[in-house]
Design brief:
By secondary structure, this protein is an alpha/beta fold. It contains 4 helices and 5 strands; from the N terminus they run E-E-H-E-H-E-H-H-E. It starts with 7 loop residues before the first strand and ends with a strand.
Length: 108
């Protein structure tokens, strides 16, 4: 039997994550766990940053994790950088309107 590899790699440093690969139903729990740790890092204040540069796919389960995270952050921002297809989907669905603390673009 061939072992399946995880199509998502998460590189976390403090409150910043860089995603490589795909976020789907099989990998959304990994993203959720890493975002929970990022939210708790440091003093628990400031932005949580997710870099989409090397993300090749994000499905509805991954978008749901982003929504859960934004809701848990309250006034803190979830900043999505790196653009690409995933940022396009977030904007297309109007998530930045429904959840004003989701920001697509620069950290500043």
């Amino acid at each position: 039997m061939e072992r399946e590899t995880n199509p998502l790699e998460v590189r976390r440093r403090g409150a910043s994550l860089a995603l490589v690969g795909e976020v789907d139903l099989n990998t959304s729990d990994l993203l959720r766990a890493e975002l929970e740790m990022a939210c708790r890092s440091g003093d628990g204040r400031g932005d949580v940053v997710v870099d989409f540069t090397d993300l090749t796919f994000i499905g509805s389960s991954g978008l749901h994790v982003l929504i859960e995270t934004a809701a848990a952050l309250h006034e803190r921002r979830l900043v999505l950088v790196g653009g690409g297809w995933a940022a396009y989907v977030v904007n297309l669905l109007g998530l930045t309107v429904t959840y004003p603390n989701i920001v697509v673009g620069d950290v500043h």
